[in-house]
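Record type: monomer structure entry
Structure origin: computed from sequence
Chain ID: A
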Amino acid sequence: MIERIKKIDTDILLWINGNHNEFWDHIMWIVSGKWTWLPFYLILASFLIWKYKKNSILMILLIGILITMSDQLASGFFKPFFERLRPSQNPDLEGKLHFVNNYKSGKFGFISSHAANVFSLAFYLTLVARKKLKWIPFVLIPWAIFVSISRIYLGVHYPTDILVPIILSIPIALIVSKLYKVFNPIFIKKTITNVT
C-alpha cells in the first residue's frame, strides 16, 4: 500500500514537473518566491485595516503566531523527524526532473513549509474575515493551491508534501481564529483604556 502511494506520488510529481515550458518556468519561479508574496500580503493587510479598523490590529498580529506555528511544525518537527528527501535531492530521480534556475532547495521536503504557511493563512482569514470580506476564501485558497503546485512544478516537493500540511493547517487556523475571537474584545478594551 505504501509503495503504491509512493508510486502515485512520484508519477504525479513527474507529470507536473515534466509539463514545463519557459512561460510556466517564469511564472512558477515568481509564485514560489517568498518576496513575491510581500506586495500581495500588504494589499491584503490594507483591506483588513480598511474593513475592520481597530479590530484588524490583533487579527494581523496573530498572523505572526499562525505562521510561526505552521512553519515550526513543518521545518522544526516534520522535516527533521521524517527526513524524507526532496525529489530534487533523491538519487532515484536524478536526471528525471526539470529544475528552474538550478534551484533544488534543502535536503528534506516532508512537509512543505510553503504549503503549511499559505493554507494556514488562507483558512485563518477565511474564518475571521469573511464576514466583511466575502471574497477572501475565493482569493486566498486558490492562491494557496497555486503556490503549492509551484513547489511540485519546481521539483522540490512531492504531492503528499503538500496534501499533509493542507490538512494540518485546518486545526492551526481554528486555534488561532479562536484566540482572535476570545482575546480581541479584551485587546480592544485595553487599547481604548490606555488611549483615554
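Annotation 1: Residues 2-195 form a domain with the Vanadium-containing Chloroperoxidase; domain 1 fold (CATH 1.20.144.10).
Annotation 2: The helical segments are 2-18, 22-32, 34-52, 55-82, 113-129, 136-153, 159-195.
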